[in-house]
Amino acid sequence: MEVQGLELARIAARAADEKTGAETVVLEVGEVLGIAEAFVITSAGNERLVRTIGEEIEAQVKAAGGPGPIRIEGRSDARWVLMDYGDIVVHIFLEETRRYYDLERLWSDAPRFDWQA
Questions:
Q1: Strands, sheet with 22-27, edge to edge from the N-terminal-most edge strand
Q2: How many CB atoms lie within 10 A of CB 54?
Q3: Contact between 88 and 5 (Cβ < 8 Å)
Q4: CA distance 109 to 31
Q5: For residues 80 and 66, what is the distance between their CA atoms, to the nearest angstrom?
Q6: Element (H, E) at 61
Q7: What long-range pairs does 100-107 form, CB within 8 A, spacing at least 24?
Q8: Could you give the 3-state DSSP secondary structure of residue 34?
């Protein structure tokens, strides 16, 4: 059975955390956005680590029986890597880029999902 939705978000968030993703959060945006169930947001201190986190998320999702990403954007400059899995969208930011775009504030009406439980 393919892993989907919030379980997919949990796997991605844990993978980011294992590779030292900072301040990882999962926002349940399905009710307010309608095109995805959740956003996984994390950040890293340098471009190399942004790429490493993305690679780890992709590997762990695949190992858990999840889908491959539909598309990946931003991998070349690694300031903001977006991984679209359909049900979820993973955002891996360079720390200063995350502060600039502040998605948590933009989507502040979306509830947070406790991915560590």
A1: 22-27, 38-44, 88-94, 80-84, 71-73
A2: 27
A3: yes
A4: 10
A5: 22
A6: helix 47-63
A7: 103/27, 103/39, 103/41, 104/25, 104/27, 104/41, 107/27, 107/29, 107/32, 107/33, 107/39
A8: coil
Between 34 and 81, the higher pLDDT residue: 81
Residue 91 and residue 54 in contact, taking contact as beta carbons nearer than 8 Å: no
Q: Where are the beta strands (DSSP E) in 7-115?
A: 22-27, 38-44, 71-73, 80-84, 88-94
For 70, the token pair is 């539909």
State the pLDDT at residue 94: 97
As assigned by CATH, the class of the 5-106 domain is alpha beta
pLDDT in tens, 44-91: 999 999 999 999 999 999 999 999 999 999 999 999 999 999 999 999
| pTM (global) more than 0.70 | yes
